[in-house]
Amino acid sequence: MEQSIESTKVVIFGQDPYPTQGHADGLAFSVAKEVSRLPASLRNIFSELSSDCGVTRINGDLSDWFNQGVMLINRILTTGVGASLTHADIGWKEITDAVAKELGNHQVVALLWGKSAGELSDNFKPSLRIESAHPSPLSAYRGFFGSKPFSRCNNILKAQGKTPIRW
Q1: Chain CA centroid to CA 9, Å
Q2: Which residue intervals define the domain Uracil-DNA glycosylase-like in the entry (predicted)?
Q3: CATH of the domain at 107
Q4: Is 138 part of any domain?
Q5: How far, rounded to the nearest angstrom, does the alpha carbon of residue 90 sit from its chain's CA centroid?
Q6: C-alpha span between 51 and 55 (Å, rounded)
Q7: Residues of 73-101 as b/e, b for ≥16 C-beta within 10 angstroms?
Q8: Is the pLDDT assigned to residue 21 strictly greater than 80?
């Protein structure tokens, strides 16, 4: 998978990959089409998407978002199987900080989900960032649900003269 800065219109930052064997597929929050029981965070994302835009997804593969210019990236790029945040202190944040800075310099719309992602907010103009709680079951009711990130993002893209995302 490869995505140039020039083709990136939106970035969604999460925390770290799914720790369940076979779930993480290289795109934050995404899972392979074959995964029948979606991770709780992804179910919450799809619930908000339905509420916000009336869109119903049939599987957890988000490669169609990627193909439209949505970068899906976690602050921490790897984790151990069965345990979240096991690789939190091996230098990934320095790399993803640099990615965020570069994306911010290119007027990319940023969806920052959770505290860790929110630490990147200064890299993006206030008019180009949408911050909320993380979609995990532990925090979704503290500001993710009802945040309308998908319609807000598309409104920003339209104002920039860019094609909205088909979520």
Answers
A1: 13
A2: 1-157
A3: 3.40.470.10
A4: yes
A5: 21
A6: 8
A7: bbbbbebeeeeeeebeeeebbeebeebbe
A8: no
Is the residue at 104 inside a domain? yes
Q: Domain range spanning residue 143?
A: 10-159
Question: pLDDT per residue over 58-104, tens digit each?
Answer: 999 999 999 999 999 999 887 778 777 777 789 889 999 999 999 99
The dihedral built from the CA positions of residue 77, 4, 22 and 64, taken in this order, carries a sign that is: positive
Question: Where residue 17 falls among pLDDT bands split at 50, 70, 90?
Answer: confident
* CA–centroid distance for 95 within its chain: 16
Residue 68's CB: how many other CB atoms inside 10 A? 15
Confidence of residue 130 (pLDDT cuts 50, 70, 90): very high
Give me the chain's average pLDDT, please: 94
CA distance 112 to 151: 15
Cα separation of 165 and 162, whole Å?
9
The amino acid at residue 103 is L
Total number of domains constituting the chain: 1
pTM score: 0.93
Mean pLDDT of 106-131: 97
| The pLDDT value given to residue 50 | 99
Cβ atoms of 145 and 46 within 8 Å: the answer is no
3 state DSSP class of 73: strand
Q: Which of 16, 25, 61, 97 is catalytic?
A: 16
